[in-house]
C-alpha cells in the first residue's frame, strides 16, 4: 500500500503577499487527509513557506539544488541551506532545469546524492519531449534518466523519495497525457526499478505531472501505477490544488 503523494511546484511564481494567501489557504485544509503533500517554492521564499507550514503536515521543498556542499558556486543553493530552513527535500531533474539550465543526467545524479547524503528526500523527474515520443523513444529516454540515478544509488534510495513522470509536451500546455498513456509509462518505470529491487519498486510512489487539474486528476489517479501528481500551474490556486489533493486522498493505492 503506497500513500498517495501530491506536490505543488510553484516554479517562478508568487510574491510575499500572494504566497501568504496561498499558504494560509492550504494550511490545515481538510482535503489533505490521507495524502502526503509538498510544495516546491522559489528559494527567496523558503523561509516564508517554511515558517507558515511549521506546524502543519505540508512539506516545503526546493525546486533544484546544488550538488556542491559550499563554496564558489554563484547562484547555487546548498543542501545545508535547505536544512537551515527546514526543507524536506528537492525536485531534481525537472525538464525545465534539464532544458533551460543544462542539467545533465550526471548532474541530476550528483544532486540526488547530495540530498540523500543529508537524509533529505528527492523527487526525481523524468520525461520525454514531443519529438522523442513521436520517434518512439519515450521508454528509452525515461529509462535512461531513471537508470542514471538507479545505477549509482540503488532502488532503495530512490524509494525514499518520489519518481515523477512528466512528459515535456504536457507541461503547461493543457495537453494532459491520457490516463492510459501515463499508466503505460509508469508501469514501465516500475518494471525498471523492479529489475533492481522488487520491494523498492512496489514501495516507490510514481506520480504524474503535466497539466494536472482538478477535473482530470481523478481519472489519472484511477490507474494502478499512478500514485499522485506533481502539479505546476494548478498548484497556484488553493482550490484547484486542494481538489487534486482530495482526489489523491480518495484513491485506494
Ligand atoms: O512540475 C510540474 C510540472 O512541470 C507540471 O506543470 P503544469 O501542471 O503547469 O503542466
From TrEMBL:
Gene (UniProt): tpiA
Keywords (A to Z) from UniProt: Cytoplasm, Gluconeogenesis, Glycolysis, Isomerase
Main localization (coarse): cytoplasm
Binding sites annotated in the UniProt record for substrate: 9-11, 172, 211, 232-233
CDD domains for this protein: TIM
Record-linked InterPro entries: Aldolase_TIM, TIM_sf, TrioseP_Isoase_bac/euk, Triosephosphate_isomerase, Triosephosphate_isomerase_AS
Protein name: Triosephosphate isomerase
Catalytic center residues: 94 (electrophile), 166 (proton acceptor)
Amino acid at each position: 500500500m503506497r500513500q498517495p503523494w501530491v506536490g505543488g511546484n510553484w516554479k517562478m511564481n508568487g510574491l510575499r503577499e500572494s504566497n501568504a494567501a496561498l499558504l494560509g489557504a492550504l494550511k490545515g485544509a481538510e482535503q489533505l487527509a490521507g495524502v502526503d503533500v509538498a510544495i516546491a517554492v522559489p528559494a527567496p521564499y523558503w523561509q516564508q513557506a517554511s515558517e507558515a507550514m511549521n506546524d502543519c503536515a505540508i512539506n516545503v521543498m526546493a525546486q533544484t539544488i546544488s550538488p556542491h556542499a559550499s563554496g564558489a558556486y554563484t547562484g547555487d543553493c546548498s543542501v545545508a541551506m535547505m536544512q537551515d530552513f527546514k526543507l524536506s527535500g528537492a525536485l531534481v531533474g525537472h525538464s525545465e532545469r534539464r532544458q533551460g539550465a543544462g542539467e545533465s543526467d550526471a548532474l541530476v545524479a550528483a544532486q540526488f546524492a547530495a540530498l540523500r547524503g543529508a537524509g533529505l528526500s528527492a523527487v526525481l523527474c523524468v520525461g520525454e519531449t514531443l519529438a522523442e515520443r513521436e520517434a518512439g523513444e519515450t521508454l528509452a529516454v525515461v529509462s535512461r534518466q531513471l537508470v542514471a540515478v538507479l545505477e549509482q544509488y540503488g532502488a532503495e534510495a530512490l524509494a525514499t523519495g518520489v519518481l515523477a513522470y512528466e512528459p515535456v509536451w504536457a507541461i503547461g500546455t493543457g495537453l494532459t497525457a491520457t490516463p492510459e498513456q501515463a499508466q503505460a509509462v509508469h508501469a514501465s518505470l516500475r518494471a525498471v526499478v523492479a529489475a533492481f529491487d522488487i520491494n523498492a519498486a512496489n514501495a516507490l510512489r510514481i506520480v504524474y505531472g503535466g497539466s494536472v487539474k482538478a477535473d482530470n486528476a481523478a481519472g489519472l489517479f484511477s490507474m494502478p501505477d499512478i500514485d499522485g501528481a506533481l502539479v505546476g500551474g494548478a498548484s497556484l490556486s488553493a482550490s484547484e490544488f486542494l481538489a487534486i489533493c482530495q482526489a489523491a486522498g480518495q484513491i485506494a493505492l
